[in-house]
Write a structure and sequence with these properties.
The complex is a heterodimer of chains A (271) and B (160). By secondary structure, chain A is of the alpha+beta class. Chain A is built from 10 helices and 12 strands. Chain A folds into 2 domains: 44 residues, no CATH class; 212 residues, Uridine Diphospho-n-acetylenolpyruvylglucosamine Reductase, domain 3 (2-Layer Sandwich), CATH 3.30.465. Chain A has a 5-stranded antiparallel beta sheet. Chain A is globular. Chain B has 160 residues and is an alpha+beta fold. Chain B folds into 2 domains: 73 residues, Roll (Ubiquitin-like (UB roll)); 76 residues, DNA polymerase, domain 1 (Orthogonal Bundle), CATH 1.10.150. Chain B contains 5 helices and 5 strands. In chain B, strands 2-1-5-3-4 form a 5-stranded mixed beta sheet, covered by helices on one side. In chain B, strand 1 and strand 2 form a beta hairpin. The chains are: A alpha+beta (271), B alpha+beta (160). At the A-B interface, strand 1 and helix 5 of A face strand 4 and helix 3 of B.
Chain lengths: 271, 160
Amino acid sequence: MLRINEYRRVESLEEAYGLNQKKNNKIIAGGVWLKIGDRRLGTGIDLSGLSLDYITETDDVFMIGAMAVLRDIETHPGLLAYTDGAVKESIRHIVGVQFRNCATIGGSIYGRFGFSDVLTLFLAMDAEVELYEGGMVPLKEFVHMPYDNDILVALHVKKKPIHIVYKSQRNTATDFPVAACAVSEYDGKLHVSVGARPARAELLEIASDAMPGTEDGIRAFAEELAGQFVFGSNRRAGAEYRRHVTGVLLARALRELAGQKQHERRNGEMK
Amino acid sequence: MKIHLWLNEREITREIDADLPLLEFVRSEGCYSVKRGCETSNCGLCTVWMDGRPVLSCSVLTARAEGTHITTLEGVRERAEAFGAFLAKQGGEQCGFCNPGFIMNVLAMEDELTNPSDEDIREYLAGNLCRCSGYESQMRAIKEYLRSRKDELPLNGETE
């Protein structure tokens, strides 16, 4: 059960950062993960008065404030169009609409949870986290950083001509995934992000011309890719099962990616 | 700490503990429809609306609700009864335990989605667990209810 001595709705990021330097103080983002643990906090730090629930789209970038909830992200027309629906596919299986109206992008990304669909998705994009003290850090570096007392202010996603597909597998609807992957192509590279390992999502980047042109080739390539990630076991699934299912999902994602590109070539248009 | 909010449009100010979940708060104010069905934010039974959006009151701290409008089943009685009639007619009302949260989310869906497909409905309500029905009767009730709303038929569960 979550116990909190004091609750502070801060008036500035500076105030939040100051409070967050104390070991037993914590930022309460959506609170859906914190609440299921057995914790006692000195001060619960609430960022909800700082208008950080924005999703802003410019010509070059999406800026998603830390307090934007998952439901707003999965229904954002700009993000849906940019990811060809992958953003919705990665989020729509997470518990239910009510849960996703609570859970925030800041909590999901800062937590770097081993089950995170959201982290897996954004890792396959050109994304950076905006930290209050640490400044802009590429998400692919942030994912390996240890937990510290900085504050995640926003997630920035650079807009590029991109193809991206998201796939996940669950033992039962609305549960954590036992396999999750996002495959994208931008900047002449394939970006393969694998989550639910069940450790933090990992990213592999390979030159685009490695993509095979045949069905047999795709299957073998997907298995080879899955073999490069380290999987673990927990009560939901064993490591071997996760590797096998991830290979199948990667093959499906690669096929869809090839289909997207073919479709685009046929229509003679670039995103 | 002090909290100021609107519960079913009643403006209230109360002294609360910093870690009081919204669920316990609304029950302490007499909204007994709101119940805890699980301990893992998964069952949807505790669904209330915060500024019109469905949220899990087991997972939201009351302190977070400062300045917001909270709505429980007690605050949407007429609409809940109208949909409840469709639910009963289709045999969707069995043990009834999941109903308050389920009805709150169905009504939120009605407000949020236009002409939802079966898949849209299943997806929107995936976070409301029912252990009696297998969801078929609820699905029939929802579709009949939405059809009646569209056709402006009387809200008594009778569509023919």
